Amino acid sequence: MGRRGLAIIGFAAALSGALAACSPAPKPASDAAPAGKAGSTLATVQKHGYVSCGASQANAGFSLPDDKGYWRGLDIDMCRAVAAAVLGDQDKARFVPLTGQQRLTALQTGEIDLLPRTTTWTMARDANGVNFTFPNYYDYTGFMVRAATGATKPADIKGASVCVQTGSITEVIFADVSWRQKLDLKPVIFDNVSATRQAFFSGRCDALITDASALYSVRATQSKNPDDYVIFAANDEANPLTPAVRHGDDQWFDIVKWVFQAQITAEYLGITSANVDEMLKSEDPAIRRLLGVEAGYGKALGVREDWAYQIIKQVGNYGEVYDRNVGKDSKLKIERGLNRLQRDGGLMVPLPFS
Amino acid sequence: MTGFVQTQSIDARTAPLDARRSLFRVLFGDVLSTVSTLAILFAVIALAPKLVSWGLLNGIWAGEGTQCTGAGACWAFLRAKYPFILFGIYPPGQYWRPVALIVIFIGLTLYSLPPKNWKTSTLWAWVIGTVVALALMAGGVPGLEAVPTDSWGGLPVTLILTVLSLGLGFPLAIALALGRQSELKAVKYICVAVIEGIRGLPLLSLLFIVSILLPLMLPDGLKIDKLLRALVAMTVFSAAYLAEVLRGGLQGLHNGQGEAADALSLSWWSKTRLIILPQAISNVIPPLTNTVVVMVKNTSLVLIVGLYDLLSAGRAALADPAWPAPFAETYGFIALIYFIICFSITRYTHWIERQNLFGVNR
User: How many whole angstroms separate alpha carbon A315 and alpha carbon A80?
Assistant: First the structure.
């Protein structure tokens, strides 16, 4: 792989040197990964040589193949990070396009090893056969209005007509918001997504209500000038989109949880894909533990010692992944908001890495 | 009692109106024709300038997403995305493989069109060609990178589903149709149950069953490929419908045909193969074509089970935030491909109907 440069080889050599002290013969880092127990998800992944992940059919910013058929997105990078941690190569990931109805079945039947596909963590789903790891994106329901109206919060659009898609959870939230905040909003209901959006852009209604991530995507792709529209939250509820794994494999559950933790901890510690090689030399014990310079943590998890290094080097920390796919460096330009680190006022809490 | 015999000759009459319709008569023959002709003419005159200015004068033919401002058609989008729409998420460096599949399928189809090529060797050519084409797509042998079916997409998936579901469904349909006519009660009722059971289900629900229910019911560790599951659903679906069409052909056949064959002491198999089926099939060519065309279009339903056929690939291309999502152009492009396929099938059938096959005159 082109992106695994000499630095990795150098690091691998250094690490095998370190390992030589406790193992009879020096081994390269890629062989250092302990084998998973027979029948476990880890063992299956190691046997296949790839991680199989559920993807959506087309969801800009979250999972979408580019012109070259290469999958990109926030959820895609979650899967690539697991591949980097477990197999040492972010491209050892395969993506199975799934519809909303299929996704949980595909996970339960073992067709995929991990489901990072904008799936909301709900109690019923959690109780029925899947385990949710950590939310990798907090979405919310938002309004999009024309910037010229000057509206920046729901109270500003009292009496407005709002394009709503029928049969969606958004319709319920719309009614709640209108009633609770006494906004007297008038719904203009459509039965499919594209009709709803076209109606808004053609001026049929004053506002459009749906998931904020979808609003940003719509604004980027379907408006003539994205700056003519503003997006704000409809209420104060967060919608945690959370990668899930199957019930019954605790080790795999732990691995996926800590792969994500490694990415937010890396952001917290200021480790990026650009400076991770320098960070290997850091004296900071937290950084040394995370990057596997101090051995033992990878082994405890059942993966290679340099697992977090591989994630950060190949995929990046959470901030990088966010900015690249949905944030300021992408077309969607979604503000970090709830997805900031807890330190910065968001909901992403780095757990103690020790 | 004496028979009645005409003694004088009847004067020649003018041909009925239908036989000498001039274009003018077709368009303005009566009030209804005149009104509809004028209405259509008016609609064309009203719409044509808009279409021309949208599609041609203001169309953006090349460039980036930012240049498509909405004034005209964004043909640049199709120019940038057509490989993705045609081949989906297949690895771009390997596009020659899906191209080879398309060439093999189209080549075999063209070769099989003239009735003089309807022989056993053509059938074998199809079997070998299909196996080679699928092997090329899948790879996995030295020198050919393995491409899992999850990465197949676009037109090849549409063609594979069409050709295989009809190709495998047709023999199954013949078996079901003959079984339904069988004198063995058990065989008859099984065939009736299968045909009516499947015809009673929408294709959509069949696809849901194979994609969601079936994996849950299979024992642990046994996984069937997603494309294969969809193919199985489409095959049984087309078989049930083709079987009903064939039943029409079988029932339309005069009893005397079978009785004459029996009188010649032909075996049941020879009778069916040489006498019954050729006439039955040739009797139902128009409804068969109808089923074939419907199945071609049905392949687009696999969208709902997460397969990247032509339509899904087009929708995925539209989701790219770098472009202003030109729905009309993209769906128009996809519709054009479907139209070419379906229209060719119907034109071919018109031609074949006039070929006076099997001595059946039409």
Answer: 7
